[in-house]
Amino acid sequence: MSLIEREQKRVLAFIKENKFPKYKDILKKLPVSEFAEYGEFNHTMIKRIYENLDNDKLIKVCYNLIRARGGEKAVRENFYTLCHNSPAAHQSNLVNGWIVATKYQAWDRP
Asked: How far apart are CA 110 and CA 87, in angstroms?
């Protein structure tokens, strides 16, 4: 098993053990300026992405749904919310870095 595969396994185990926060808990952390881009629908999409980081096809579907509802600004704001408010945001840089490095590619390219 390669280093990347081992790291992916570790990240997926972390995600399984650390559930994504509830919508109301995320809202408590967000600045008011981001409320318009982060509703319950987008929360569901972000949660699906977090729980399925090894599924690029699903990530692209969620990305496209967020984009269709709010454009590129919604994509940026929701990606920011994922990276800064998920359980991984407060863990090692390696876990959050893996999310950013490998999954932003799926978001960035429809």
From this structure: 26
Rounded-to-integer distance, Cα 12 and Cα 99, Å: 10
The pTM score is: 0.80
CA–CA separation, 23 and 89 (whole Å): 16
User: Do residues 12 and 54 touch, judged by C-beta distance below 8 A?
Assistant: yes
pLDDT digits (tens, 9 = 90+) for 60-102: 899 999 999 999 888 888 888 888 888 877 766 555 565 655 5
- The tens digit of pLDDT for each residue in 4-36 reads 778 778 888 888 999 999 999 998 888 776 667
* C-alpha dihedral (30, 36, 39, 44), degrees to nearest 10: -80
C-alpha 14: how far from its chain's center? 14
CA distance 56 to 54: 6
Contact between 66 and 58 (Cβ < 8 Å): no
